[in-house]
Amino acid sequence: MKPAFTFKQFAISQERCAMKVGTDGVLLGAWARVEHCRRILDMGTGTGLVALMAAQRSQADIVAIDLDADAVAQAAENVAASPWESRIQVVQADARQVESGKTFHFQLFDAILCNPPFFENSLKSPDVARTMARHTDTLSFDELARSAARLLSPEGELSVVIPYDRAHDMTVSAACCGLFATRQTVIVPVEGGKPKRILMAFSREGAAHTVETLCIHDAQRQYTPEYVRLVEAFYLKM
Q1: What CATH class has 23-231?
Q2: With a threshold of 0.85, does the pTM exceed it?
């Protein structure tokens, strides 16, 4: 079967996954600091996209977890077809209950990456898997922050991509667990438009930082040079 989505160094089949390849995951996989990590956790891996991007950008050993059995099977297939099968372990697990050293053989992680479910009090899809992937019933920001605080190494960093209007909620949830902002990049789909997403990174130390802005398209609907620089190592036509 022809892969549904082909990148420069790997391909993603996604017919059994509730959430397909999208800009959010690509942004997170390209933006998170992973280059010098030894151990990485992709929390809610879906197709395995973010884990595979992290593998391309690092020499780390990676654990990719998801609650959904079909997503886990699909991610495992995508990993097996990639150049980094030996470094990525795909596990069906609930991030809220996972125990380092028991659910997987790593103790703590230098980086945790998560494209979390973020819809609250909205109409839910009759597709149970899609609802699980999109709604905070399965992993609230508070639960995400608590899980990250348990699983991060002392100098580790949690990186997420969430709606721009939920940034304060995520910041409060993280701070309550002793995690503080180190970087933030606001994502604007079209130059001059309103922000839609924000990339946020947190650590125990935190850091003085400025909030950057990244526009995906310019006013003529062409990709901006900044966006191309971020993702060109992955997309075929960049």
Answers
A1: alpha beta
A2: yes
